[in-house]
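Long-time lurker, first post. I've been practising inverse folding by hand and with some scripts of my own, and I keep getting stuck on stretches where the C-alpha coordinates seem ambiguous. Below is the full C-alpha coordinate string for one chain I'm working on. Before anyone asks, I'm not after the true native sequence, just a reasonable design that respects the backbone. If someone could post their per-position residues I'd love to compare against what I wrote down in my notebook.
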Protein backbone atom coordinates (compact mmCIF):
# COMPACT_ATOMS: atom_id res chain seq x y z
CA UNK A 1 0.00 0.00 0.00
CA UNK A 2 1.42 3.38 -1.00
CA UNK A 3 2.24 5.75 1.83
CA UNK A 4 0.85 9.23 1.17
CA UNK A 5 3.05 11.98 2.50
CA UNK A 6 2.68 15.70 2.82
CA UNK A 7 6.10 16.99 1.79
CA UNK A 8 6.90 20.58 2.66
CA UNK A 9 9.68 21.67 0.36
CA UNK A 10 11.19 25.00 1.28
CA UNK A 11 13.29 26.48 -1.43
CA UNK A 12 14.90 29.89 -1.43
CA UNK A 13 14.18 31.52 -4.79
CA UNK A 14 17.77 32.59 -5.33
CA UNK A 15 18.54 28.94 -5.76
CA UNK A 16 15.32 27.78 -7.33
CA UNK A 17 14.19 30.30 -9.93
CA UNK A 18 17.32 31.75 -11.45
CA UNK A 19 20.33 29.75 -10.40
CA UNK A 20 21.94 26.33 -10.51
CA UNK A 21 19.63 24.37 -8.26
CA UNK A 22 16.49 25.11 -10.28
CA UNK A 23 16.48 22.00 -12.51
CA UNK A 24 16.98 19.33 -9.80
CA UNK A 25 14.68 20.91 -7.23
CA UNK A 26 11.88 21.51 -9.71
CA UNK A 27 12.31 18.00 -11.09
CA UNK A 28 11.97 16.56 -7.59
CA UNK A 29 8.95 18.75 -6.80
CA UNK A 30 7.24 17.61 -9.99
CA UNK A 31 8.03 13.96 -9.28
CA UNK A 32 6.60 14.17 -5.76
CA UNK A 33 3.40 15.73 -7.07
CA UNK A 34 3.14 13.08 -9.78
CA UNK A 35 3.50 10.38 -7.13
CA UNK A 36 0.48 11.74 -5.29
CA UNK A 37 2.08 13.80 -2.55
CA UNK A 38 0.99 17.23 -1.38
CA UNK A 39 3.82 19.68 -1.75
CA UNK A 40 4.10 23.29 -0.59
CA UNK A 41 7.07 25.36 -1.66
CA UNK A 42 8.12 28.44 0.29
CA UNK A 43 9.93 30.79 -2.07
CA UNK A 44 10.10 34.31 -3.44
CA UNK A 45 7.47 35.80 -5.71
CA UNK A 46 9.64 35.62 -8.83
CA UNK A 47 9.62 31.82 -8.54
CA UNK A 48 5.85 31.44 -8.43
CA UNK A 49 5.16 30.45 -12.04
CA UNK A 50 7.87 27.80 -12.16
CA UNK A 51 6.73 26.26 -8.90
CA UNK A 52 3.05 26.21 -9.79
CA UNK A 53 3.91 24.62 -13.15
CA UNK A 54 5.05 21.55 -11.22
CA UNK A 55 1.63 21.23 -9.58
CA UNK A 56 2.91 22.22 -6.14
CA UNK A 57 1.42 24.97 -3.99
CA UNK A 58 3.45 28.14 -3.88
CA UNK A 59 3.83 30.00 -0.57
CA UNK A 60 5.57 33.37 -0.68
CA UNK A 61 8.26 34.55 1.67
CA UNK A 62 7.03 37.58 3.59
CA UNK A 63 10.18 38.71 5.38
CA UNK A 64 13.17 36.99 3.73
CA UNK A 65 13.70 39.37 0.80
CA UNK A 66 10.35 38.65 -0.92
CA UNK A 67 11.23 40.73 -4.01
CA UNK A 68 14.53 39.00 -4.72
CA UNK A 69 15.13 38.29 -8.39
CA UNK A 70 18.70 37.41 -9.33
CA UNK A 71 18.10 37.63 -13.05
CA UNK A 72 18.36 41.41 -12.76
CA UNK A 73 21.20 43.42 -11.27
CA UNK A 74 18.89 45.90 -9.55
CA UNK A 75 17.02 43.20 -7.61
CA UNK A 76 20.04 41.04 -6.71
CA UNK A 77 20.86 41.54 -3.00
CA UNK A 78 24.03 39.44 -3.16
CA UNK A 79 25.85 41.38 -5.87
CA UNK A 80 28.77 39.01 -5.46
CA UNK A 81 29.74 39.73 -9.05
CA UNK A 82 30.89 43.18 -7.88
CA UNK A 83 33.54 41.73 -5.57
CA UNK A 84 37.14 42.03 -6.71
CA UNK A 85 38.29 38.70 -5.30
CA UNK A 86 36.86 35.22 -4.97
CA UNK A 87 37.19 35.51 -1.20
CA UNK A 88 35.24 38.77 -1.23
CA UNK A 89 32.50 37.22 -3.34
CA UNK A 90 32.29 34.28 -0.95
CA UNK A 91 31.93 36.62 1.99
CA UNK A 92 28.99 38.32 0.32
CA UNK A 93 27.26 34.98 -0.22
CA UNK A 94 27.88 34.06 3.40
CA UNK A 95 26.75 37.38 4.84
CA UNK A 96 23.79 38.10 2.55
CA UNK A 97 22.50 34.61 1.94
CA UNK A 98 23.70 31.78 4.16
CA UNK A 99 23.76 33.88 7.33
CA UNK A 100 21.77 36.93 6.27
CA UNK A 101 18.54 35.04 5.57
CA UNK A 102 18.93 32.42 8.28
CA UNK A 103 16.73 33.96 11.00
CA UNK A 104 13.90 35.01 8.70
CA UNK A 105 13.94 31.64 6.92
CA UNK A 106 13.87 29.74 10.21
CA UNK A 107 11.00 31.84 11.55
CA UNK A 108 8.88 31.65 8.42
CA UNK A 109 9.41 27.91 8.02
CA UNK A 110 8.56 27.33 11.69
CA UNK A 111 5.35 29.34 11.34
CA UNK A 112 4.29 27.36 8.29
CA UNK A 113 5.06 24.03 9.96
CA UNK A 114 2.78 24.98 12.84
CA UNK A 115 -0.22 25.65 10.61
CA UNK A 116 0.61 22.92 8.06
CA UNK A 117 2.31 19.97 9.80
CA UNK A 118 4.51 18.11 7.35
CA UNK A 119 6.02 14.64 7.50
CA UNK A 120 9.26 15.60 5.78
CA UNK A 121 11.11 18.86 5.16
CA UNK A 122 13.17 19.11 1.97
CA UNK A 123 15.57 22.02 1.72
CA UNK A 124 18.47 23.39 -0.22
CA UNK A 125 21.78 23.20 1.63
CA UNK A 126 22.08 26.98 1.39
CA UNK A 127 18.98 27.40 3.59
CA UNK A 128 20.16 26.19 7.00
CA UNK A 129 17.33 28.14 8.64
CA UNK A 130 14.86 25.61 7.22
CA UNK A 131 16.84 22.80 8.84
CA UNK A 132 16.65 24.63 12.18
CA UNK A 133 12.87 24.94 11.87
CA UNK A 134 12.52 21.28 10.94
CA UNK A 135 14.58 20.14 13.91
CA UNK A 136 12.64 22.42 16.24
CA UNK A 137 9.37 20.92 15.01
CA UNK A 138 10.69 17.37 15.26
CA UNK A 139 10.33 16.78 11.51
CA UNK A 140 12.96 14.81 9.53
CA UNK A 141 14.86 16.89 7.01
CA UNK A 142 16.42 16.00 3.66
CA UNK A 143 19.08 18.35 2.30
CA UNK A 144 19.58 18.74 -1.45
CA UNK A 145 23.04 19.65 -2.72
CA UNK A 146 22.87 21.29 -6.15
CA UNK A 147 26.64 21.74 -6.50
CA UNK A 148 29.77 19.76 -5.63
CA UNK A 149 29.66 18.47 -2.05
CA UNK A 150 30.26 21.60 0.08
CA UNK A 151 31.24 20.26 3.51
CA UNK A 152 34.72 19.30 4.77
CA UNK A 153 36.17 16.04 3.42
CA UNK A 154 39.74 14.86 3.95
CA UNK A 155 41.52 14.68 0.60
CA UNK A 156 39.29 17.18 -1.22
CA UNK A 157 39.83 20.94 -1.47
CA UNK A 158 37.06 23.26 -0.23
CA UNK A 159 34.26 24.35 -2.48
CA UNK A 160 35.00 27.87 -3.64
CA UNK A 161 38.75 27.31 -3.99
CA UNK A 162 38.66 26.16 -7.61
CA UNK A 163 41.43 23.68 -6.77
CA UNK A 164 41.91 20.09 -7.87
CA UNK A 165 42.95 17.37 -5.42
CA UNK A 166 46.64 17.18 -4.55
CA UNK A 167 48.02 13.99 -3.04
CA UNK A 168 50.86 13.56 -0.58
CA UNK A 169 52.01 15.66 2.34
CA UNK A 170 51.97 18.90 0.38
CA UNK A 171 48.38 18.29 -0.67
CA UNK A 172 47.33 17.48 2.88
CA UNK A 173 49.01 20.67 4.11
CA UNK A 174 47.33 22.78 1.42
CA UNK A 175 43.88 21.34 2.11
CA UNK A 176 44.34 21.61 5.86
CA UNK A 177 45.08 25.33 5.58
CA UNK A 178 42.18 25.85 3.18
CA UNK A 179 39.68 24.05 5.43
CA UNK A 180 40.97 26.00 8.44
CA UNK A 181 40.15 29.23 6.60
CA UNK A 182 36.73 27.82 5.68
CA UNK A 183 35.92 27.09 9.33
CA UNK A 184 37.11 30.52 10.43
CA UNK A 185 34.92 32.19 7.82
CA UNK A 186 31.78 30.31 8.84
CA UNK A 187 32.47 30.57 12.56
CA UNK A 188 31.35 34.19 12.19
CA UNK A 189 27.85 32.92 11.39
CA UNK A 190 27.56 30.70 14.47
CA UNK A 191 25.96 33.35 16.72
CA UNK A 192 23.13 33.85 14.23
CA UNK A 193 22.69 30.11 13.77
CA UNK A 194 22.54 29.57 17.52
CA UNK A 195 20.09 32.44 17.93
CA UNK A 196 17.80 30.72 15.42
CA UNK A 197 18.19 27.44 17.29
CA UNK A 198 17.42 29.09 20.63
CA UNK A 199 14.22 30.54 19.17
CA UNK A 200 13.18 27.00 18.24
CA UNK A 201 14.06 25.57 21.65
CA UNK A 202 17.34 23.97 20.55
CA UNK A 203 20.74 24.05 22.20
CA UNK A 204 23.81 25.78 20.70
CA UNK A 205 26.24 24.20 18.25
CA UNK A 206 30.00 24.63 18.14
CA UNK A 207 30.44 24.14 14.37
CA UNK A 208 28.50 25.73 11.52
CA UNK A 209 28.30 22.47 9.55
CA UNK A 210 26.69 20.52 12.40
CA UNK A 211 23.22 21.80 11.58
CA UNK A 212 23.10 20.35 8.08
CA UNK A 213 25.30 17.33 8.70
CA UNK A 214 22.84 16.25 11.38
CA UNK A 215 19.86 15.79 9.04
CA UNK A 216 18.45 12.43 8.02
CA UNK A 217 19.88 12.51 4.50
CA UNK A 218 22.09 14.75 2.37
CA UNK A 219 21.46 14.09 -1.33
CA UNK A 220 24.14 15.24 -3.77
CA UNK A 221 22.33 15.48 -7.09
CA UNK A 222 25.03 14.29 -9.46
CA UNK A 223 27.26 11.26 -9.99
CA UNK A 224 30.02 10.42 -7.54
CA UNK A 225 32.49 10.09 -10.42
CA UNK A 226 32.16 13.81 -11.13
CA UNK A 227 32.92 15.04 -7.61
CA UNK A 228 36.21 15.06 -5.73
CA UNK A 229 34.55 14.59 -2.34
CA UNK A 230 33.35 11.10 -3.27
CA UNK A 231 36.96 9.91 -3.06
CA UNK A 232 37.11 10.75 0.65
CA UNK A 233 35.30 9.39 3.69
CA UNK A 234 31.82 10.87 3.70
CA UNK A 235 29.28 10.72 6.55
CA UNK A 236 26.85 7.77 6.25
CA UNK A 237 23.90 10.08 5.58
CA UNK A 238 25.49 11.50 2.38
CA UNK A 239 24.30 9.95 -0.88
CA UNK A 240 25.10 10.68 -4.51
CA UNK A 241 21.68 10.19 -6.06
CA UNK A 242 22.29 11.21 -9.67
CA UNK A 243 21.18 14.27 -11.62
CA UNK A 244 17.56 15.40 -11.95
CA UNK A 245 16.31 17.20 -15.02
CA UNK A 246 13.04 18.94 -15.78
CA UNK A 247 11.08 17.47 -18.72
CA UNK A 248 10.76 19.35 -21.99
CA UNK A 249 8.40 18.99 -24.93
CA UNK A 250 9.16 19.00 -28.63
CA UNK A 251 12.26 18.54 -30.73
CA UNK A 252 14.90 21.05 -31.67
CA UNK A 253 14.70 22.39 -35.20
CA UNK A 254 17.93 23.73 -36.59
CA UNK A 255 17.73 27.32 -37.86
CA UNK A 256 20.44 26.48 -40.43
CA UNK A 257 19.83 24.92 -43.83
CA UNK A 258 19.84 21.09 -43.84
CA UNK A 259 22.95 21.17 -46.02
CA UNK A 260 24.96 22.86 -43.26
CA UNK A 261 26.60 20.06 -41.32
CA UNK A 262 29.21 22.14 -39.47
CA UNK A 263 29.66 21.11 -35.81
CA UNK A 264 27.04 22.62 -33.52
CA UNK A 265 28.43 24.63 -30.60
CA UNK A 266 25.98 25.53 -27.84
CA UNK A 267 26.85 28.70 -25.88
CA UNK A 268 25.13 29.33 -22.55
CA UNK A 269 26.12 31.36 -19.52
CA UNK A 270 24.42 31.94 -16.17
CA UNK A 271 20.66 32.44 -15.90
CA UNK A 272 21.34 34.78 -12.96
CA UNK A 273 22.95 38.16 -13.52
CA UNK A 274 26.73 37.96 -13.11
CA UNK A 275 27.85 40.83 -15.31
CA UNK A 276 28.51 38.25 -18.04
CA UNK A 277 28.10 40.39 -21.15
CA UNK A 278 31.85 40.89 -21.73
CA UNK A 279 32.89 37.21 -21.57
CA UNK A 280 29.92 36.20 -23.72
CA UNK A 281 30.90 38.77 -26.34
CA UNK A 282 34.46 37.45 -26.37
CA UNK A 283 33.10 33.95 -26.96
CA UNK A 284 30.90 35.21 -29.80
CA UNK A 285 33.89 36.98 -31.36
CA UNK A 286 35.89 33.78 -31.01
CA UNK A 287 33.39 31.61 -32.92
CA UNK A 288 32.97 34.22 -35.67
CA UNK A 289 34.50 32.86 -38.86
CA UNK A 290 35.01 29.33 -37.54
CA UNK A 291 33.41 26.47 -39.49
CA UNK A 292 30.79 25.88 -36.80
CA UNK A 293 27.13 26.55 -36.16
CA UNK A 294 27.00 28.52 -32.90
CA UNK A 295 23.74 28.70 -30.93
CA UNK A 296 23.61 31.21 -28.06
CA UNK A 297 20.99 30.88 -25.33
CA UNK A 298 20.95 34.29 -23.66
CA UNK A 299 18.68 33.51 -20.71
CA UNK A 300 16.89 36.19 -18.67
CA UNK A 301 20.04 37.96 -17.49
CA UNK A 302 21.55 38.84 -20.86
CA UNK A 303 20.27 41.23 -23.54
CA UNK A 304 20.89 39.55 -26.86
CA UNK A 305 20.20 42.77 -28.78
CA UNK A 306 23.26 44.36 -27.18
CA UNK A 307 25.66 41.71 -28.54
CA UNK A 308 27.58 41.48 -31.82
CA UNK A 309 26.52 38.24 -33.45
CA UNK A 310 28.32 36.82 -36.48
CA UNK A 311 26.72 35.14 -39.50
CA UNK A 312 27.39 31.63 -38.23
CA UNK A 313 25.65 32.34 -34.91
CA UNK A 314 22.00 32.35 -33.89
CA UNK A 315 20.67 33.68 -30.58
CA UNK A 316 17.56 32.58 -28.69
CA UNK A 317 16.22 33.90 -25.41
CA UNK A 318 15.71 30.41 -24.02
CA UNK A 319 15.83 26.81 -25.14
CA UNK A 320 16.02 23.68 -22.95
CA UNK A 321 19.64 22.59 -23.04
CA UNK A 322 18.75 18.93 -23.25
CA UNK A 323 16.68 19.57 -26.36
CA UNK A 324 19.77 20.82 -28.21
CA UNK A 325 22.61 18.87 -26.59
CA UNK A 326 22.03 15.57 -28.48
CA UNK A 327 22.92 17.50 -31.64
CA UNK A 328 25.92 19.41 -30.20
CA UNK A 329 29.64 18.74 -30.57
CA UNK A 330 30.71 21.19 -27.84
CA UNK A 331 29.20 23.38 -25.15
CA UNK A 332 30.82 26.66 -24.15
CA UNK A 333 29.64 27.72 -20.73
CA UNK A 334 30.30 29.49 -17.45
CA UNK A 335 30.32 25.98 -15.92
CA UNK A 336 27.30 26.16 -13.68
CA UNK A 337 26.85 22.75 -12.04
CA UNK A 338 23.53 21.95 -13.71
CA UNK A 339 24.83 23.04 -17.11
CA UNK A 340 27.82 20.77 -16.60
CA UNK A 341 25.59 17.85 -15.61
CA UNK A 342 23.24 18.43 -18.55
CA UNK A 343 26.04 18.53 -21.13
CA UNK A 344 27.82 15.49 -19.75
CA UNK A 345 24.56 13.54 -19.43
CA UNK A 346 24.41 13.75 -23.23
CA UNK A 347 28.12 13.05 -23.64
CA UNK A 348 28.95 16.56 -24.88
CA UNK A 349 32.43 17.92 -24.04
CA UNK A 350 32.68 21.33 -22.37
CA UNK A 351 34.78 24.43 -22.79
CA UNK A 352 34.47 26.05 -19.37
CA UNK A 353 34.82 29.82 -19.01
CA UNK A 354 34.11 30.16 -15.27
CA UNK A 355 33.21 33.37 -13.53
CA UNK A 356 32.46 33.22 -9.81
CA UNK A 357 30.59 31.16 -7.20
CA UNK A 358 31.19 27.41 -7.68
CA UNK A 359 32.04 27.73 -11.37
CA UNK A 360 35.86 27.39 -11.04
CA UNK A 361 35.27 24.29 -8.87
CA UNK A 362 32.94 22.78 -11.46
CA UNK A 363 35.41 23.49 -14.24
CA UNK A 364 38.17 21.77 -12.24
CA UNK A 365 36.00 18.65 -12.00
CA UNK A 366 35.27 18.67 -15.73
CA UNK A 367 38.98 18.90 -16.55
CA UNK A 368 39.94 16.15 -14.13
CA UNK A 369 37.24 13.91 -15.63
CA UNK A 370 38.85 14.42 -19.04
CA UNK A 371 35.50 15.72 -20.30
CA UNK A 372 36.46 19.25 -21.23
CA UNK A 373 38.83 22.17 -21.09
CA UNK A 374 39.03 25.33 -19.04
CA UNK A 375 40.08 28.85 -19.93
CA UNK A 376 40.14 31.91 -17.71
CA UNK A 377 37.03 34.02 -17.47
CA UNK A 378 38.91 37.01 -18.90
CA UNK A 379 40.48 35.05 -21.76
CA UNK A 380 40.80 36.94 -25.02
CA UNK A 381 38.81 36.00 -28.10
CA UNK A 382 42.03 34.77 -29.71
CA UNK A 383 42.73 32.44 -26.79
CA UNK A 384 39.14 31.26 -26.80
CA UNK A 385 39.25 30.55 -30.53
CA UNK A 386 42.31 28.32 -30.09
CA UNK A 387 40.61 26.49 -27.24
CA UNK A 388 37.42 25.95 -29.23
CA UNK A 389 39.33 24.48 -32.16
CA UNK A 390 41.39 22.27 -29.83
CA UNK A 391 38.30 21.02 -27.99
CA UNK A 392 36.50 20.14 -31.21
CA UNK A 393 39.53 18.26 -32.53
CA UNK A 394 40.46 16.31 -29.37
CA UNK A 395 38.76 12.86 -29.33
CA UNK A 396 39.83 12.29 -25.73
CA UNK A 397 37.34 14.90 -24.55
CA UNK A 398 34.50 13.09 -26.26
CA UNK A 399 35.56 9.84 -24.63
CA UNK A 400 35.72 11.51 -21.24
CA UNK A 401 32.28 13.06 -21.70
CA UNK A 402 30.85 9.71 -22.81
CA UNK A 403 32.24 8.05 -19.68
CA UNK A 404 30.55 10.70 -17.53
CA UNK A 405 27.31 10.18 -19.47
CA UNK A 406 27.33 6.54 -18.41
CA UNK A 407 27.90 7.50 -14.77
CA UNK A 408 25.18 10.15 -14.78
CA UNK A 409 22.70 7.77 -16.43
CA UNK A 410 23.03 5.26 -13.61
CA UNK A 411 20.23 6.80 -11.54
CA UNK A 412 17.53 9.46 -11.74
CA UNK A 413 18.06 11.84 -8.83
CA UNK A 414 14.41 12.91 -8.64
CA UNK A 415 13.27 9.29 -8.45
CA UNK A 416 15.87 8.27 -5.89
CA UNK A 417 15.15 11.22 -3.57
CA UNK A 418 11.37 10.79 -3.91
CA UNK A 419 11.68 7.15 -2.87
CA UNK A 420 13.92 8.08 0.06
CA UNK A 421 11.36 10.63 1.22
CA UNK A 422 8.61 8.04 0.99
CA UNK A 423 10.62 5.63 3.12
CA UNK A 424 10.97 8.33 5.77
CA UNK A 425 7.23 8.86 5.74
CA UNK A 426 6.63 5.16 6.20
CA UNK A 427 8.88 4.81 9.24
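-- Answer (accepted) --
I ran through it position by position. Result:
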Amino acid sequence: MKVRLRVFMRVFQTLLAFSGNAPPQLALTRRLVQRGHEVKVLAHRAARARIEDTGAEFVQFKRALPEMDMARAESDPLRDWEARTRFGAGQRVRENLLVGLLLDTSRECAELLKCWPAEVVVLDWMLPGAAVAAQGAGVPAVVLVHCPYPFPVVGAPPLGSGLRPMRGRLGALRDGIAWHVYRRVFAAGLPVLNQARAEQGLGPLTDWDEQLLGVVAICAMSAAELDFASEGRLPPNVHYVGPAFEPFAGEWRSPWPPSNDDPLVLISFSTSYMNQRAPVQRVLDAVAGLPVRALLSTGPALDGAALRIAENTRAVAFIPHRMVLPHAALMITHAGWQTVNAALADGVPLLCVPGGRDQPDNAARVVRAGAGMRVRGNASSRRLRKAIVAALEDPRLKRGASAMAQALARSDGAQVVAERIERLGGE
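A couple of notes from the structure itself: The chain has two domains: 6-244+412-426, 264-408. The mean pLDDT is 86. Happy to go over any region you disagree with.
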